[in-house]
């Protein structure tokens, strides 16, 4: 197989070479590349999943970058299929409009727009001048067929110039998780500035480093997520790109996220207190020190030891252990915890994953109903974000003497009450 990754040696935000390894997770298969029976014997490349800390600007990041075409070309996830995400996007759209009221005719752009769910939320509020950009051909087609105009491409300076020529400047530009997915953040930010109206705002949502560290959220670390953002590092980066961070909101999405609002420098909006509050919070947590991130790794190593011992003992006693969840986080968990070889099968609600095999360990994915047919003794919850929901929906499995194992915030076995 051809080399699917490259390695950078400078910080993604400030270009400094003063980088320090803080979370050595080792090599891992690329998470969403599930196998079928026809290609199960093909070679699978593993790519380092190590986190580095920039001692110059405190940004935390992966240095090994998987080819974006390889990552995103066959993406099947559609945001509209996740009711919780749809609800979140409706809320985000309303908050943005309240923060920066615009006229109904003004242009709104969403970068990495998927099937157009967020833009549809703006459309539902009467803002019809919308435009999405997304690299997935299949999903862009879905968006266009649903009435959300979408350009099928990676957003860059050329695309932004074409948009400016054909549509004019945008009063609102949004990017959900895009700043986590992109390696060349300077170029994409220049493209954003190019098409952003003089009085427009750029709104980005990313997983929040403080939550990742404090909750040891290894489930958020995979090759698609190149960056793990703090307000301090982002504020400095945006400032260097002639943008000003003026407002920050914190939320529970993906275990903990932030939404940042930025404008061209020297515009009329003042920087509100939310920015300084977040900076104070990070200072108190010593988030700008590599030792703080290293403490997270020590906690992860403790969890790894506990989980490996627990599952190892179950298998030694002849117990059957399955996994629940065949999404991106599951691959990271199985790889880092080194337990994939001990799981008999995986289950997932997503029909597109059924009867395929997980990257790396090649564990078959079955419909969720199989936990009642095969009756494993234990089910490890890999879909960590949805652990509470999974446990609640499958009380019948527990009442039938099955047990769930959850990893976050600590390793816990949920069994039938005696």
Describe the structure.
The protein has 418 residues and is an alpha/beta fold. Helix content is 35%, strand content 23%. The chain contains 15 helices and 21 strands. The protein has helices spanning 68-72, 83-99, 117-124, 137-145, 157-167, 178-181, 185-195, 209-214, 231-240, 273-284, 290-316, 328-337, 370-373, 387-393, 395-399; strands at 5-7, 19-23, 27-29, 46-48, 51-54, 60-62, 64-66, 107-111, 130-134, 150-152, 170-176, 196-207, 227-228, 243-251, 257-264, 321-324, 346-348, 365-367, 378-381, 403-406, 412-414. It is globular. The mean pLDDT is 93.
Task: List strands and helices in order, with pairings.
Elements: E1 5-7, E2 19-23, E3 27-29, E4 46-48, E5 51-54, E6 60-62, E7 64-66, H1 68-72, H2 83-99, E8 107-111, H3 117-124, E9 130-134, H4 137-145, E10 150-152, H5 157-167, E11 170-176, H6 178-181, H7 185-195, E12 196-207, H8 209-214, E13 227-228, H9 231-240, E14 243-251, E15 257-264, H10 273-284, H11 290-316, E16 321-324, H12 328-337, E17 346-348, E18 365-367, H13 370-373, E19 378-381, H14 387-393, H15 395-399, E20 403-406, E21 412-414
Parallel strand pairs: 8-9, 8-11, 9-10, 11-12, 16-17, 16-19, 17-18, 19-20
Antiparallel strand pairs: 1-7, 2-5, 3-4, 5-6, 6-13, 12-15, 14-15, 20-21
Helix pairs in contact: 2-3, 5-7
